[in-house]
Design a protein that fits this description.
Length: about 220
């Protein structure tokens, strides 16, 4: 499903040069490598890169994993046809700088696909906080695992309050920044949750639907 969704928005090439930003355990990178594309993936932590590399070996695909700060990439200009990322931009210290850097390494006619959500906007909005607490109540009523209880909630909220995007209304914030940088043909889907999440995830994150931003470098 993820493979189909991404490639439906990707440039029309038989073999894409793809960059996965903040690859984590390598899910998107491996998914696209399995489709026969040339994939490079970057993450800021060696632990994640090692885990992703082990997963790539398990699935018998080649991915070029690179340790890098996503704000300052070790690649030449115009290196990639497609840049993908999921749940990354919200926790960056300087998302504007990151968008500029991704624009630099994106090839002409290349596309950026950003999957994200307003993960901690509820900390700054009473109405959203009520909806967030209703999500927690719904997990109990449905008898399913509350994903927020798997983390140190207080520490995550402390960190989120320090991040610039936690209080921004997205993806409109992203649209404005992308336009100012020079991205063109910006398309936004405000809620793709039913496409990319299972029923348990939809209950957990009902108040923070996942959006998709597609932007092109002309």
């Amino acid at each position: 499903m993820w493979q189909k969704l991404i490639l439906n928005h990707a440039p029309n090439k038989n073999k894409l040069r793809i960059l996965d930003i903040g690859n984590g355990p390598g899910f998107l990178a491996i998914t696209l490598a399995l489709a026969g594309h040339e994939v490079t993936a970057v993450d800021a932590t060696e632990e994640m890169l090692n885990q992703a590399q082990n997963n790539a070996i398990q699935y018998q695909v080649k991915v070029n994993f690179v340790l890098s700060d996503v704000h300052h990439l070790p690649f030449k200009d115009n290196s990639f046809d497609l840049i993908i990322l999921r749940n990354v931009t919200w926790n960056l210290s300087n998302p504007t700088l990151a968008y500029q850097e991704w624009f630099r390494v994106l090839n002409t006619k290349g596309k950026l696909l950003n999957f994200d959500a307003n993960w901690y906007l509820f900390l700054f909005n009473k109405n959203l906080y009520s909806q967030y607490m209703q999500d927690r109540q719904n997990t109990m009523e449905y008898g399913i695992e509350d994903h927020y209880r798997q983390t140190d909630t207080l520490e995550m909220e402390r960190i989120a309050k320090l991040l610039p995007l936690s209080k921004e209304i997205r993806p409109e914030w992203d649209r404005n920044i992308l336009q100012s940088i020079g991205y063109k043909n910006i398309c936004i889907e405000n809620d793709i949750s039913k496409v990319v999440w299972d029923e348990i995830e939809q209950i957990n994150y009902h108040s923070t639907p996942m959006f998709l931003i597609v932007a092109e470098k002309e």
